[in-house]
């Protein structure tokens, strides 16, 4: 059997490896942005489109959620207010390539299932609704009315609304998200899993329990005016490149940066700002003053040591280190917490972190010397088993010095997709508070369920045991974004109905239920014209700023509907024309949706007027705004968090999954991870030189990855991902890294973070086995 990819797809044997990069962006970033844009959109479309990204009269980048500059903070937007990966995201969406019925007639679902995510995504924009019925081999076109009737008939035939799950990705606008959650709850379920369940759920749980609100406490100005920024478990050079410009401002103003990561990431070493001549022809700006190359899973131990050092330092010189006035006035639980952290076990800390005491003490001194500190983090923290506890310790660290509600300081969970935070604000959550559900009922005169629904992992378990028989996905790529790929795909194929609202083809479309539909929708870049005229939508960024987004391009097809229109028409088919909610008015004029958002969502009063302000408006955040904490005690909570060491048997490594520089989430833009020196392949595993030798392999060997996980009953489970090439890379000793979604098969569905139920993708125990070539 030939193990190579199909013709025209990735040839993994073409792998080229060079030296890891020592700087991010620069002229290369500009040239790649233009080359990819021209490849997908053509020159004229590129010139018209790129200047609209993140501009007031343009559209919000469909990539990350890093905020835009605001005039009320003394900043102006640049003519090119986007990064390389933002340009790639727009080029992917605004591509001139198209997929119509003839494409689906040419390729069977079985043939498409053999292709990679990269190949599927490069085929172009979906242009017509398609359906695949049980026993059929090819998708075929279906009219919109017939599609909605088929979905409504299937959903209505379920034994209970709770047998359906309604997934959402972070690209969905506030208007579509609000209408979607309203439809789902009117149908009768709170099964609203979303991509947050798999990324920042640990942040939401930890922050809600400690400061009373699940979002970060900083503005863009706070970050840029900090004396010290800690960047934990995050790679901004690839995942949030515009953040590098903010970190550059920190350095220009005399601030310092600490990077904590198992891998040395180019974007945290040096930034060549492509907006400045010095970034094009010069050396750029060195960023990280301290790089702590931590062992995977060691973050809580590091943070615990840092909080202990701060408490001990104040014990030696009372009142000189800790903000005692803040602690006494605004916090609860300090005495118990301080008593625990004073006992720093240095031997255990050094084993868990891989760092030496001297470096940890240097970082502690930087914290003590800083009057304005910001801590940023991403999935390197949230996707650990102790992710919630780790983020609670981040909060402890900031409370000690009174770094919440102080200008230039605060908590900064850096969200991924561009509106993942807004979707949650609008009600996309399986556990929305009673106050929100009650407001829905009063506003619309409907009855909604109050029992908690299922999150993403719970939905997958429900599919396996027959409790969930239908999945509707508003955007995203459910099959590839979720863990335990074989189990996920088995679960999807066992559904009676799968529906995906999408702009482009992805893996989820080729893992169908008995009946499967693809509903093509407008992209963020495209004009949305409804009966009342041209519409705009709104989004919320990582720092709680809500602002407008206006698509400007002609739609890829005359057969596309907006997400709002899809939701409203499905609601009318499913709930009937006489339903109390005015779905037809919502579709006709999005102002009508925003009027109702104002009546339901806290902080959104006068929504229509405020989102029309040039920079939008900022959602309220009591800890940031007034140092008030809506917790049970009315104070910020100190918590005691005890590190639990990860036991790694001899001959094994701890694996983390991560993105290439040439992808965003499961969308694979290309095959160039140039900051890591890896080109033209994705099935690679990055391992420290010393570990390669110790395990008896050599750089370039072909191996299979086998994950080992002990389930709660003590049973050992193994999962396999085959044919990965070893790449020598300066990772922390005992640690390895591989790209997702290729490595997702190794993440057990049952291996989840405590409290948040987020899949543990950042600490997978694996062994490497020499790959055995098959013949035939």
Q: Into which percentage range does the β-strand content fall?
A: 15-25%
In whole angstroms, how far apart are the ends? 4 Å
Number of strands: 34
**Mean pLDDT over the full residue set:** 95
Q: CATH architecture of the largest domain, please? A: 3-Layer(aba) Sandwich
Shape: globular
Task: Give the domain tally.
Answer: 4
**Backbone structural class:** alpha/beta
CATH-defined topology of the largest domain: Rossmann fold
Helix content: 25-40%
Radius of gyration: 25 Å
List low-confidence stretches. Answer: 1-6
What is the count of helical runs?
A: 32
Spatial ordering of strands, largest sheet:
6-5-18-17-16-7
Largest pleated sheet = 6 strands, mixed
CATH top level label of the largest domain: Alpha Beta
Description:
This protein has 776 residues and is an alpha/beta fold. It has four domains: 22-93, no CATH class; 98-195 and 431-605, Rossmann fold; 201-413, Dimethylsulfoxide Reductase, domain 2 (3-Layer(aba) Sandwich); 653-770, Barwin-like endoglucanases (Beta Barrel), CATH 2.40.40.20. It is 35% helix and 17% strand. The strands form ten sheets. A six-stranded mixed sheet has the order 6-5-18-17-16-7, sandwiched between helices. α9 crosses α21 and α15 packs antiparallel against α18 (346-353). The protein is globular, with a radius of gyration of 25 Å. The relative contact order is 0.16.
């Amino acid at each position: 059997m030939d193990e190579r990819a199909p013709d025209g797809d990735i040839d993994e044997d073409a792998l080229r490896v060079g030296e890891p990069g020592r700087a991010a962006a620069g002229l290369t970033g500009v040239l790649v942005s233009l080359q990819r844009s021209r490849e997908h959109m053509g020159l004229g479309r590129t010139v018209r489109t790129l200047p609209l990204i993140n501009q007031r009269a343009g559209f919000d980048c469909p990539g990350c959620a890093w905020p835009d500059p605001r005039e009320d903070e003394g900043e102006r937007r640049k003519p090119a207010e986007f990064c390389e990966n933002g340009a790639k995201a727009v080029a992917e969406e605004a591509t001139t390539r198209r997929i119509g019925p003839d494409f689906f007639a040419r390729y069977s679902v079985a043939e498409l299932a053999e292709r990679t995510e990269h190949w599927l995504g490069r085929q172009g924009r979906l242009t017509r609704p398609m359906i695949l019925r049980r026993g059929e081999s090819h998708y075929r076109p279906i009219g919109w009315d017939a599609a909605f009737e088929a979905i409504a008939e299937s959903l209505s035939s379920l034994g209970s609304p709770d047998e359906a799950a309604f997934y959402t990705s972070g690209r969905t606008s506030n208007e579509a998200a609000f209408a979607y959650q309203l439809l789902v709850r009117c149908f009768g379920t709170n099964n609203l899993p979303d991509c947050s369940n798999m990324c920042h759920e640990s942040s939401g749980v930890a922050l809600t329990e400690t400061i009373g609100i699940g979002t970060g406490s900083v503005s863009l100005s706070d970050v840029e005016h900090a004396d010290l920024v800690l960047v934990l478990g995050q790679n901004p050079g690839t995942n949030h490149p515009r953040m590098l410009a903010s970190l550059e401002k920190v350095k220009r103003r005399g601030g310092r940066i600490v990077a904590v990561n198992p891998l040395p990431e180019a974007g945290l070493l040096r930034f060549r700002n492509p907006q400045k001549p010095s970034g094009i022809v010069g050396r750029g700006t060195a960023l990280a003053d301290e790089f702590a190359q931590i062992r995977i899973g060691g973050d809580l131990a590091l943070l615990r040591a840092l909080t202990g050092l701060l408490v001990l330092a104040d014990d030696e010189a009372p009142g000189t280190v800790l903000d005692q006035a803040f602690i006494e006035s605004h916090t609860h639980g300090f005495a118990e917490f301080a008593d625990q952290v004073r006992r720093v076990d240095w031997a255990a800390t050094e084993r868990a972190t891989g760092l030496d005491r001297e470096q940890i003490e240097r970082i502690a001194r930087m914290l003590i010397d800083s009057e304005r500190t910001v801590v940023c983090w991403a999935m390197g923290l949230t996707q650990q088993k102790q992710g919630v506890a780790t983020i609670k310790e981040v909060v402890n660290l900031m409370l000690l010095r009174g770094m919440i509600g102080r200008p230039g300081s605060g908590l900064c969970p850096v969200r991924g997709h561009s509106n993942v935070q807004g979707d949650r604000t609008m009600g996309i959550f399986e556990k929305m508070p009673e106050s929100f559900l009650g407001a829905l009922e009063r506003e619309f005169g409907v009855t909604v369920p109050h029992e908690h629904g299922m999150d993403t992992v719970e939905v997958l378990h429900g599919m396996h045991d027959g409790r969930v028989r239908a999945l509707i996905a508003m955007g995203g790529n459910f099959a590839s974004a979720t863990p335990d790929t074989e189990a996920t795909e088995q679960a999807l194929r066992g559904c009676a109905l799968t529906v995906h609202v999408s702009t482009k083809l992805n893996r989820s479309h080729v893992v169908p239920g008995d009946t499967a539909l693809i509903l093509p929708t407008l992209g963020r870049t495209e004009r949305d014209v409804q009966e009342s005229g041209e519409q705009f939508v709104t989004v919320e960024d990582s720092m709680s700023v809500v602002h407008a987004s206006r698509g400007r391009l002609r739609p890829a097809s005359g057969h596309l509907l907006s997400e709002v229109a899809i939701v409203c028409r499905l609601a009318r088919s499913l709930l009937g024309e006489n339903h109390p909610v005015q779905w037809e008015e919502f579709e006709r004029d999005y102002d009508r949706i925003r009027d109702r958002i104002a009546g339901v969502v806290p902080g959104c009063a006068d929504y229509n007027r405020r989102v029309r302000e040039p920079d939008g408006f900022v959602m309220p955040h009591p800890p940031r705004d007034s140092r008030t904490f809506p917790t049970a005690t009315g104070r910020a909570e100190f918590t005691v968090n005890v590190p639990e060491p990860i036991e790694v048997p001899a001959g094994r490594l701890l694996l983390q999954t991560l993105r290439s520089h040439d992808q965003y989430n499961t969308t694979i833009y290309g095959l160039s991870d140039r900051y890591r020196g890896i080109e033209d392949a994705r099935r690679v595993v990055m391992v420290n030189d010393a570990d390669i030798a110790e395990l008896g392999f050599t750089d370039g060997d072909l191996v299979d990855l086998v994950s080992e996980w002990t389930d709660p009953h003590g049973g050992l489970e193994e999962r396999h991902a085959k044919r990965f090439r070893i790449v020598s890379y300066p990772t922390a000793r005992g640690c390895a890294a591989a790209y997702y979604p290729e490595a997702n098969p190794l993440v057990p569905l049952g291996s989840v973070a405590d409290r948040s139920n987020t899949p543990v993708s950042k600490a997978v125990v694996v062994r490497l086995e020499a790959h055995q070539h098959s013949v035939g």
